[in-house]
């Protein structure tokens, strides 16, 4: 039998219903985070100078 550390993810994005939409163990994953944010929040607004 071996012991395992239960530290959990380094970061996660949880939906309002409690489901984890994205998680990382500390490795950089900007594309995965961007995709999850776009899925749940929609595309980023356009920045138009006024």
List keywords for this structure.
two-stranded antiparallel sheet, 1 helix, 50 residues, elongated, 24% helix, alpha+beta
Task: Give the arrangement of secondary structure elements.
Blueprint: E1 11-14, E2 20-24, H1 30-41
Antiparallel strand pairs: 1-2
Pfam family, one: Rng_hyd_C
In short:
The chain has 1 helix and 2 strands.
Spans of at least 5 consecutive residues whose pLDDT stays below 50 are: none
Largest sheet: 2 strands, antiparallel
Pattern of helices and strands:
EEH
Mean of pLDDT? 82
What's the β-strand tally? 2
For the largest sheet, list the strands in their spatial order. 1-2
| Multimeric state | single chain
Structural class label:
alpha+beta
Q: Helicity level, as a percent range?
A: 10-25%
Radius of gyration based on Cα positions: 16 Å
Walk me through this protein's architecture:
Pfam families: Rng_hyd_C. The chain has a two-stranded antiparallel ribbon. It is built from 1 helix and 2 strands. By secondary structure, it is of the alpha+beta class. β1 and β2 form a beta hairpin. It has a domain of 31 residues.
């Amino acid at each position: 039998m071996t012991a395992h550390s239960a530290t959990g993810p380094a970061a996660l994005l949880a939906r309002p219903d409690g489901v984890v939409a994205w998680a990382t163990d500390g490795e950089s994953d900007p594309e995965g985070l961007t995709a999850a944010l776009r899925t749940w929040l929609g595309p980023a607004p356009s920045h138009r100078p006024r």
